[in-house]
From TrEMBL:
Localisation: Cell outer membrane
Family membership: Belongs to the TonB-dependent receptor family.
Entry protein name: TonB-dependent receptor
Record flagged with keyword Kinase: no
Protein origin, superkingdom: Bacteria
Membrane topology: Multi-pass membrane protein
Lineage: Bacteria, Pseudomonadati, Pseudomonadota, Alphaproteobacteria, Sphingomonadales
Amino acid sequence: MRIASVSIAAMATVLAAPAFAQDQAQAEDSGGGIAQIVVTAQKRAENVQDVPIAISAFSADALQERAVGSVAGLLNISPNVTLDAGTPFSGSSAVLSAYIRGIGANDFAFNIDPGVGVYLDGVYLARSVGANQDLPDVERIEVLKGPQGTLFGRNTIGGAISIVTHDPGDEFRFKGDITTGRFGLVQTRGTADLPLTDGLAASVSFATKNRDGYVKRVAFPGANNFASTPITNYKAAGYNNIGYGSEGGDNSWNLRGKLRYDNKSNLRVTVSGDYSNIDQSQLANTLIKTTPAVFAGTYNCAIQGVVVGDCGGGPPSFAYIGGIGGLNSIFDNPTVFGVNADANPANNRLPYDDRFVSKDIDVSYANGNNYSKLKTYGGSGTIEFDLSDTMMVKSITAYRELHWNAGMDLDGSPLNFLHTSFTMNQWQFSQELQLNGSAMDKKLNYVLGAYFFKEAGDLHDYVTFAEGLLQVDGPNDLSTKNYAFFGQIDYRPTEQFGITIGGRYTKENKTFEGFQSDANGLTYKILNQIGVPQCASINPISDACRIAAGFPNQGQPLRYYVAGTQRKSFSDFSPKIGLQYHPTEDAMLYASWSKGYKTGGWTTRLSNPLPTAPDFNEEKATTWEVGVKSMLLDRRLQINAAAFLTDYKGIQLNFQQGVSPTIQNAGDARIKGFEVEVVAAPTDGFLINASVGYTDSYYTAVLAGAQVAANPFQAGVFPGADLPKTPKWKFNVSPRYELSMGGDSKLVVLADWTHTTSLWNDTERAYLLQRGPTDIINGNITYKSGNHWDLTVGMTNITDERYLVTGQAQIAGGQFYGTYSRPREWFARLGVEF
């Protein structure tokens, strides 16, 4: 552990500095120093050390060496960042839950915009579905910390992640690899550069991944002795991979093509297209605990034939409800009331309780839907035209689509107790124009721009609770139209001083119509059983009963939402002001003040009728930041650090209301912290990356309706409580040693250790879903034979640390469930280049 102690000591000296910033360089250059990384965080190519923004930048080689294969893989190597593959009941690890400095979003629903913007070659990916991009041909990734509203726009209130893919080269080149590993992993990747004519070149990239899941489904002992209702009796997005097998597996492939024209004068044109087919088993799921609350208690009472009173769980008024409805009307499926108490043992049903909590977190008794099928594709065209030696106009035109169908069995049992499935269809079009230039002998740099974005699509939710006691059928249609104007000026009147002034004006219009309903008519059954006169007969449902139940639409007695298209408009101005001081050529101190915002929308998940469509407003963040970037000791030591303070207003958080996860503006928060990243190259061949991040995030005000008091299940939400998905501390140390083996051959040994303190995985801070402190250790050894082939053997999560990535406290529905991190995995990779 001598390497770790040296790195931590180096960081400790930095913490005494008066200002902080951060960044990450990843490899040594030919001269033995620390390599430069060029980024485009300010819409122009610059050395990352010259950009007055807290940025973590990772090159392609660094990502491969550290076994980072997706955006979520950056979780452990970027301070004050939480990136998780999957959100509660999303069904897919291609869904990204992204938080930077305490700000983000932990849902996939169409009505919820991300708080961290993900950009692919300058094109905004509007949905968190598919945002956990595979990285087969990446050139670099830039993680920008803090509000990026001026240059990147809406929904970058926490920060931005910019993925830059490989551009075609002027000479033929092929680089590829094949990887095998635990759980039957077989992965292939390759990129070919194809020069076509003078000034015109193409590249083609591909990637495939096949592996088995790590959670095994097994039959519950004795389940065949009990009656059950087929899953196909209930509404769902599809019926796939039903039964046993495994969860958390992949069978995916993607393609990317680029065509680039450069006349070596004043015109450059790049056209690209990509297609991804992600066919997975469901996001691995583990039942953690059952609860005897509303639905579990009601069902368990019903099968025992209890009419009055509480038989150990459900409220007495719910114990009356024995009838279970289903598919096309509210009366298709036979009642299960009293089946365990009648004279016919052949129709007995399994109760729902802790018998289904497996002693092994990687074993489940689920046997329902188990799939996620995502197709996402798009194309873009980028034109750069030099108007003069100091002025360029740039256009980025892009179109993208995604089509998604997923189904999960979340109850961990052979019962149809909590099954979710979804379809999502989305398309987006964007057009961005930029004018980039410099003046006054490059003392003044500027970017001016205009942006247009349009998106539309639908999300259809299907949720089966308690053998159909509640059968949610929730189609929703949404659309967005956005335009913006932005500009930023960077002026450096002297060698030592610089100033940045920028701003962005955004106007956005949204529309929504919700059709969510309950195909079982549970509300009417309750009113019938408790003796509401208008609902004495509910077959058919009279209009008088509909009005008594509060359903808003005549002729649609099961539809929760008021009919008609809902509309909201938003406008915002996000400014930025910054100052820089350069005491030497290799050091910069900076300070900045910036704002960002995220648009509002509507809550789409209802389990009770409402007279109006419930909506939520925008959220806003104002951040003050100071930092330092420095390259010392003849480029042998790089120290970057940043300290920040954020006022976070109108926070949009996902709260569990009954069985419905709903979005509301929870209140305000204060977020403060710092991050330090150190790169040291003490000798040729030896490199150490180290970082520390600290974030203190807490509510300063919480609206009365959003507060959750501490209870036996949850720590609650109230002023002073911590924000979700935000650990206090994260430390990382990554030593890399390169040894010459004679000739052009090399041996590279790399290790990676990350310690993260505990965090809350959900808004209400459920104790059973809390992610405890973790220590993740990865390591690998690579033999490189010249520049033509290399062989790597390694292991991720060497100590087999397991933690909850995501989960939900579905207390009213009857369970706590979650997704555990992947276990220890070995891999071997053979790479070629010619």
